[in-house]
Specification:
Elements lengths: L2 H17 L19 H85 L10 H27 L2 E3 L12 E7 L9 E6 L2 E3 L2 E4 L1 E6 L6
Helix pairs in contact: 1-2, 2-3
Length: about 220
């Protein structure tokens, strides 16, 4: 029985007591054959029961409020932890990207040196005296092949990390990916066209990794 039904029952008993007049000076039921019922005692017990129900209801409400407050506190803590975790993940990604970027730039510096060595080797042409030292000639050829193999492996490693060279020569100067370090005059090319590269530029995916340093064509009378 819920509290509302108990309250209604108590009110009905109160109304009954107010209107009831005992017959023959004794309280009994309507038939006169049943046991004597002390309505005053019953009403008193019902009042005690009502007070107990009210007390339990207040205690239940207080417990419910405590549970609601605890739930809100846990939800807030969970939101904060989720936010902190997301920030930690973003910070970790940022550090990882920065570390990878530094490593890739160092790899590109190594590639520049290897390309310079390849240029020296490509310009080498054995002379007449090389016939007198065939072992040295074979050694030089082996070194050249080793340098070429190292360059191919390095390019493969850069390609796996989505690093690609910027195609600058023959195109227009793009300030977002290129930096003009010098100019030259060539009537066979349009003004603003990139004639050559002093240093290759690279992209990683859609992000700029290193600016290309280029030489740009200009008009003959251009200041």
């Amino acid at each position: 029985m819920d509290a509302e039904a108990k309250e209604r029952l108590i009110d009905e008993f109160r109304a009954c007591l107010e209107d009831w007049e005992p017959a023959g000076g004794s309280a009994c039921d309507a038939t006169g054959d049943g046991p004597v019922v002390d309505l005053a005692l019953l009403f008193s017990e019902l009042s005690v029961l009502r007070n107990e129900v009210r007390t339990e209801a207040r205690q239940f409400k207080a417990a419910l409020d405590d549970m609601r407050a605890l739930t809100e506190l846990l939800s807030e803590q969970n939101r904060r932890l989720t936010h902190d975790l997301e920030r930690a993940r973003e910070a970790e990604k940022t550090v990882q990207r920065q570390t990878e970027r530094r490593l890739l730039l160092e790899m590109l510096e190594v590639r520049d040196r290897i390309c310079a060595a390849m240029g020296v080797f490509s310009a080498y042409r054995p002379g007449v005296l090389s016939r007198l030292a065939p072992a040295e000639t074979r050694l030089a050829q082996g070194l050249g092949e080793g340098i070429a193999l190292t360059l191919r492996r390095l390019d493969a490693a850069l390609s796996e990390r989505r690093v690609r060279a910027i195609e600058a020569v023959g195109g227009r100067l793009d300030p977002s990916t290129m930096r003009a370090i010098a100019t030259a005059v060539d009537a066979d090319h349009a003004p603003g066209e990139v004639l050559s590269e002093a240093r290759r530029g690279y992209m990683q995916g859609d992000e700029l990794l290193r600016l290309a340093e280029v030489i740009v064509n200009k008009r003959e009378n251009q200041i």
